[in-house]
Amino acid sequence: MTPDSAHVPVLIAGGGPAGLATALELAHHGVASLVVEPREEVSWLRPRAKTTSARTMELFRRWGLAARVRERAALPVSWSDEAVFTTGLLGREITRFRGCFGLDLTGDDRAAEAGQQIGQPAVEQVLREAVAASPHAELRTGWSLTGLAEDAGGVTATLAGPGGAVREVRAGYLVGADGAWSTVRDAIGVSYEGSADERPNFNIVFRAPGLAGRVPHGPAVHYWVLHPDRPGLVGRLDLDDLWWCIAQGVTQQEGEADPLRLVRALVGGDVDAEIVATDPWKAKMLLAQRYGTARVFLAGDAAHLNPPWGGHGFNTGIGDAVNLGWKLAAVLSGWAPPALLDSYEAERRPVAARTIAEAARNMATLAPELADPRLTGTDTEFAAARPAVARAVQETKDAEFHSLDLVLGYTYHGTPLVTGPAGGRLAHRWLAPGDSLFDHLGRGFTLTGDLDRPEAEEFVKAAAAEGVPLELFHHPPAGLALVRPDQHVAWTAAGDGPADPREILRRAVGHP
């Protein structure tokens, strides 16, 4: 595919994490795509998302990128898995959480990968490089989608490029991963549903040489500041001098007037800091009414927006990309009917709705709600207030830091492709140090477990008859399971429901 290709199987509008991930999932299955992205370079000034979940890291592992992401991370996964609640970065400690965000899962049977703290720009750069290295995907920067026309055979998209250039591209399918202000979403007549939190927040990235050596609390992913006059969060972006903070309840006008004052207030002491970037924002709880049409689909922020508390938004977009990507590849490769694509919304929209709801619950109690004026008083006043505040923190914020039930436990049970009680992600285990069960799953479907069971041979025959790619992995301790390309279980021998392998397989690829 050349930069001037007039036809592509899949056109992806938006080269952020969700768009790039969609291209990489398609490439994983040998399907070509073109990504158009107006930004020539990744912006490093505003790190946005900082938590890559254990599930997203498992998906990166499928593409051979997990190790590269960890190499680019300025904070090693072993550096800290704790969140500390304080009266200020240099102040008194109130309480702390351990095992946050799945950062403690290295070598744990529950996941093939631990989570990773890394700024979104660094992840984007890794994904851009992977697309550039792929023979199946192309990223065209400086270009954006300005219009589209869908018909029964595909989509004709109008692109605008440098110097006023205009070009038309014909695509079999179009993915709108073009963010909150999605042109694609507007073009197909879809709106967000939901609300916004009116409380303002003000992000600051700053450089403060020597600050780390003054912090008395040890390494932490986040330092929450429960000060009644200066509530917010502070964290490190690297192990040198780069930091980030969120001043909660601060408007854009207030923040831009004197960001250094806000930094010093959250630190709780004088600090010589260089302001690198600022970013005012309000949390949004928005979900697209629909996820697409017959030929056009929405992914990532174009489909959903949620508050950042818990670190789920960016990761939900990667889940969208994998779910949609393997299905588009199956249809374009001819081993699944177009009806398979109907399941994308049925499976992913409820996950986004649950994610938004959980993030909103996390947002209900932030630093301003937890602060007690006595925490900043005398030692006696602090000692009197601390037990109740610590208890409130542990009761209200635990789910924010320990959310593996959502991160690893979301399920597609009850959707059209799933037979019986299946639908969850295949239970993971390590077969040997560094040897994950997931590493033995194929790019298409995989039949794993006790292959001596009589159903196994019937699945092999059914896959051959239907032209569905099926790999086998004999794993006797486990029951027989049919695993989809996204590592979710389509059927298990332990469940109820139809027992005919051909019927199960046909259902799993979208046949009525």
From TrEMBL:
Keywords: FAD, Flavoprotein, Monooxygenase, Oxidoreductase. Coiled coil: none annotated. The gene is tfdB. Residues 8-357 form the FAD-binding domain. NCBIfam families: PRK06126.1. It is an enzyme of class 1 (oxidoreductase). This is 2,4-dichlorophenol 6-monooxygenase. Its cofactor is FAD.
